[in-house]
Amino acid sequence: MSAGLSTTRQTQHVVRNIRGRAHVAPGHHEQWEPAEAPITPLRRSVRPVRDGAHRVGAIVPLDSQHRASLGKAATALGWDSSTSLVLIVDRDRAVIRAGKLTDARFVPVQLDRAGRLQLPPVACGALRLLPGDQVVAVAMPDERELALHAASDVLQDLTGVLTVIPAEPEAAEPQVAGSRGSSIRRAFQPEP
Q1: pTM above threshold 0.85
Q2: Architecture in CATH for domain 56-159
């Protein structure tokens, strides 16, 4: 006698009842309705051959002080809070390397003990980043550098440009004085 549970028989009825647009039961002839907007294919027609280089990636949000938690990527590069780091902006990305300020284009950056990297204003401006925006960080140990990209730019490159249709604003229902819907009182406004 087995000590484990026999989940095969207990879940067969659940699997048989799964239905969806992709899984139409035999005998049902539902037509799949295409989306309103056409699907845009990716711009590249052939997947590029992988080069075999070691990369460590992360997609992290910026906090209110423009810090990104990049401890795993920094560890892959052998960096800690005592490592001197410099940043240079290269078109649509920022590149961070271990080193000293030897060029006027370099900006010093610091990794704290928690593995957070504070991005300087020049990097946030070049990448058009605000607090709460996501950053794609790619650590390349063979190159000994960390590349930072705005996640919105990388994701748009993957999906192509999409047409955004703004949502219609919903009409707000007026609050009746004395209604029990809210415990917040209106601010005092003197009569004209």
Answers
A1: no
A2: 3-Layer(aba) Sandwich (3.40)
